[in-house]
Amino acid sequence: MILKNNTVYYSIKFRTFSFSSLNYLYDAFYDTQKKKIIPTNISSLLTKKAFAIWFMDHGGKSGNCITISTESFVYSQMCLLQKAIFEKFSLKCTIQKHKDKHVLYFAKNDIPAFSDLLKPYLLDCMLYKLNFQ
Q1: Structural domain total, the chain
Q2: Closest alpha carbon to 119 in 110, 128, 106
Q3: Most confident among 13-17, 78-82, 128-132 (mean pLDDT)
């Protein structure tokens, strides 16, 4: 846009859309007080791709291990998630206390299986999260 005195101003505009067809996902992951939860049917919702997206957003290296930040969930919901990950993907993880909350923790010996499972779905710019060299 060019205004007075031939000054050039740059701007970017974009619009987002909401699709009511996805409301069921919002309803599944938020309770009536709009607090994040792990739904009881997490096993049917969790796919390899969804797990990879979750890892890209909230996961990372912690020493020689991988953690996924899940501090907003209560312990009983974490147990549901842990069980779903094992049943769906045969990945073992533990629930570790981090301050007064909990995170998912994948031990060093489980990283190769974790990487094999998620790597095909990770964006190239996120592969560093699996680099343990």
Answers
A1: 1
A2: 128
A3: 78-82
